[in-house]
Design goal:
The protein is of the alpha/beta class. The chain has 12 helices and 15 strands. Helix 1 runs parallel beside helix 2, helix 3 runs parallel beside helix 4 and helix 9 crosses helix 12.
């Protein structure tokens, strides 16, 4: 292991390089890449590496980038790409195709606001746009978590019980362009953690049809198989967490990360880097005698409903911090979480930090005051900050 100052973009690329080289005795590594702010530095670093067995293909669009990854993956290569915002939107058709082909591709998404009007800063609407695409989705809080989660994503996606693509999300600029001390594992450690990829439906010398016509009943069967694989993700991930700790010496976070929730009566639920700000709020609230706690959702797909239900069992008021908006509904996280909260609790949605607005502890203190003053739930509130 070595400790280096890395941006989260470079952390993702470093993990992809290590994972790609770990598959050198099998199908190697393959990637299709296309630049878009703020993930470009990730694929720039990826392009500088000479893989012992593999290739990075520079293409003309995000749609083609995922198409290349699909081809590499079907041929048995370990595959990775990165994108953001409207790049993900342009890639959308092939994002669904990768999942429906049951291909264990890993993609880093640098979460950025969708345009127009054009905005290059963070919110989560781009990856959440793809929440029904059949991909596993992780949201990371810091650069170390980006590197570790990329390795975990390959192991999880390639498990024969899963065989689904995985998206590793990081907040644009807050992480993508911020340098942090990051523990980089050795190639030997990664080789030990990541078995070579053996894709059951890998194409070879015998001609086969990929993605042919399904009749109604066949489609029902495939969707059920896909859904059942998603249902196994939590259990398989718990096994992989243990193996990761044994090999790398640190504990990867679970699907839901609690903070001072043991006796909490009020909880702030967040994703991504907002989780660190929530911890500051919780500590300040505790100093005032308020029994506050924080929950960070790290795995959004499959949705960790049971874990949230358990963590929120004694909570009376819940503030959901959504760095996204589903127009005509409210926050995406709130809409999915509210039915898992304790019966009779108040679950209030605060849409905050859209388009990269700062989310500071003093902003959350105002939301805490608002939450404590409510007698009943009110419609989702768009909070203008920063």
């Amino acid at each position: 292991m070595s400790i280096e100052l890395l941006s989260a973009n470079h952390a993702a690329a470093t993990a992809a390089i290590l994972a790609g080289d770990a598959n050198r005795s099998a199908g190697g590594f393959g990637s299709g890449v296309y630049p878009i702010t703020p993930q470009t530095e990730c694929i720039e670093l990826l392009c500088t590496h000479e893989f012992e067995k593999g290739e990075v293909v520079r293409v003309e669009s995000e749609h083609s980038a995922m198409g290349v990854c699909i081809g590499f993956s079907l041929a048995g290569a370990r595959s990775f790409t990165a994108s953001a915002s409207n790049g993900l939107a342009y890639m959308c058709e092939n994002v669904f195709s990768a999942a429906l082909y049951r291909l264990p591709i890993v993609m880093m998404a640098a979460n950025r606001t969708l345009g127009p009007p054009w905005n290059i800063w963070v919110d989560h609407g781009d990856s959440l746009m793809l929440r029904d695409s059949g991909w596993i989705q992780f949201f990371c809080e810091d650069n170390q978590e980006v590197l570790d989660t990329t390795l975990l994503a390959f192991r999880l996606a390639e498990d024969p019980r899963i065989l689904l693509p995985a998206m590793v999300n990081q907040d644009a600029f807050v992480l993508s362009h911020t340098m942090m001390q990051t523990d980089i594992p050795s190639q030997d450690q990664v080789d030990h953690f990541l078995p070579t990829l053996n894709l059951p439906h890998q194409i070879g010398d015998t001609p086969v049809t990929i993605g042919g016509l399904d009749f109604p009943h066949e489609t029902e069967v495939h969707r059920r198989q896909h859904s059942e694989a998603m249902g196994r993700v939590m259990g398989v991930y718990a096994e992989i967490q243990k193996e990761f700790r044994e090999i790398f010496g640190r504990e990867p976070a679970g699907p839901v990360v609690p903070y001072r929730m043991e006796d909490a009566e009020i909880s702030f639920v967040s994703m991504g880097t907002t989780g660190s700000t929530v911890r500051v709020l919780v500590d300040r609230a505790r100093e005032k005698g308020i029994k506050a706690g924080g929950l960070r959702i790290r795995m959004f797909r499959p949705f960790p409903g049971e874990a949230l239900k358990k963590a929120l069992a004694k909570v009376k008021r819940v503030a959901v911090l959504d760095r996204n908006i589903s127009l005509g509904l409210g926050g995406v996280t709130w809409s999915e979480l509210k039915d898992w909260a304790p019966k009779g609790s108040l679950v209030q949605d605060y849409i905050i930090g859209l388009g990269g607005g700062d989310i500071r502890p003093e902003h959350l203190e105002k939301l805490l005051e608002d939450l404590c003053s409510l007698d009943a739930e009110v419609p989702p509130k768009i909070v203008e900050v920063g």
